[in-house]
Amino acid sequence: MFTSQEIIETINMVKQSNLDIRTITVGISLFDCSSDIPQRFIDSMRKKIIKYAGNLKNVANEIEDMFGLPIVNRRVALTPISLLTFSYSYEDLIKVAVAIDEIAKELEVDLIGGYSAAVHKSYDENTKKFISSIPDALASTERLCSSVDVGTTRSGINLDVIAHLGFIIKDIAQKTKDKNSFGCARFVVFANAPDDNPFMAGAFHGACEGDSAINVGISGPGVVKRALEEKKDASIDEVYETIKKMAFKITRAGQLVLKYASERLNIPMGIVDLSLAPTPKVGDSIAEILEEIGVEKVGGYGTTFALALLNDAVKKGGAMAASFTGGLSGAFIPVSEDSGMVKGVEAGALSLEKLEAMTSVCSVGLDMIVVPGDVEAEVISGLIADEIAIGVYNNKTTAVRIIPAYGKKEGDEVNFGGLLGRAKVMKMNRFSPQKLIHRGGRVPPPIISLRN
Q1: How far apart are CA 155 and CA 208, in angstroms?
Q2: With 70 as the cut, is the pLDDT of residue 15 above it?
Q3: Which of 29, 79, 246, 301 has its CA 20 to 30 A from that of 177?
Q4: What's the average model confidence in pLDDT over 39-58?
């Protein structure tokens, strides 16, 4: 049960501190839609998505009206399409991608995820064909999101796929160059990808999930920052406790939305992803929280310490507020989506190397980073390999969403608009890992995988 006091607190957090629900994401299994005939699969898929998500927009609007709580995005996550299209031609895959995008537009869903593949071990010809289709799939669509999981702590790291993905990302950038290479913002490379993630671009409905589930992703950096502003002279343990308490309140708002949406859509409750996800608005920034904790400028020494503290406190506070938590959960550091991160880059305090260090303690990884368009594919693959290693060897989720903006050079600015914000093109270390990347093969799992 939710008390009237909790609802009043939620309303106050919305009015004063930019609290919002980042996403309501409906996960839908498509295994029963599978067919060797592409059009039959598309027709079955369309009926099922409409069945479960057809009323998503209306229910989200009801929640906004009832609780005064903004719902920023309405999203759908599908069974990884690569699992259902083994026999399809390249042209059939693009046809499926376009059909998914058209369904999203029809339902006025902001984003739809699941044009995805998990390639921890083998990399067969069908999977290569699917991954090779991703640039054309994203160039032909507006709302479709795609992801590839290339490593897990249990399975190791597939270097063959990583080598290919450097070229795939370059191809996406080239094919969407008329939109500042925006297609790359809808593609992410994962290690240890969760099955119940409501956030894009990595959301998909995992094979072990039920027929459908509804997952909620919260936000709320502004709420935490406002609370810390009242703790100017507090000790670090008081700061930690303050973050925990605010994370509890924010997550309760997410649980409230999850329960109501589940009842109205008649879909089982999934999880609350208790992540602090920033927006480009001033005052709604993870970077500003880190600076409020005591770092002069995000990226300076102490930043990784402050982020680790924030991430852990958010998880501990949020875990007590919802029956089921999951997804990514913690603190996000997407550069273009966070006005404070952008300022850190502009000030010269925040570099790619520092961001990589921060990913060892945050929820995801190198996210929404814009780099020069002429960067070599092998350098991108090397960056991905480093980030995936952090995830696999530390038994955590990490990811890379990088945008080699076509025709842009270091110091230029790229503006994506809306939630994706703006970013400076960051400097990259251009020393080539080509020899490493072209070795290929698969790295065995770390010793910590032997936990049975």
Answers
A1: 18
A2: no
A3: 79
A4: 96
Angle between helices 377-393 and 159-175 (to 10 degrees): 130
Q: 292 and 225 in contact (C-beta within 8 Å)?
A: yes
Angle between helices 221-229 and 236-265 (to 10 degrees): 150
Q: What is the pLDDT of residue 70?
A: 85
192 pLDDT exceeds 90?
Answer: yes
Share of the chain residues as helix, strand and coil, in percent rounded to the nearest 5: 45, 20, 35
Q: Alpha-carbon distance 337 to 371, whole Å? A: 15
The letter for the amino acid at 19 is L
Whether 336 has a pLDDT exceeding 60, the answer reads yes
Q: What is the pLDDT of residue 127?
A: 94
* Contacts of 33-42 spanning 24+ positions with Cβ under 8 A: 33/84, 34/84, 36/87, 38/85, 38/88, 38/92, 38/95, 38/96, 41/84, 41/85, 41/96, 42/95, 42/96, 42/99
> Across-strand partners of 257?
none
Q: Are 98 and 142 in contact (CB under 8 A)?
A: no
Nearest to 146 by CA among 154, 137, 155: 137
* pLDDT for residue 188: 97
Separation between Cα atoms, residue 422 and residue 81, nearest integer Å: 31
Nearest to 28 by CA among 123, 136, 107, 120: 107
Give the residue-averaged pLDDT of 15-28.
79
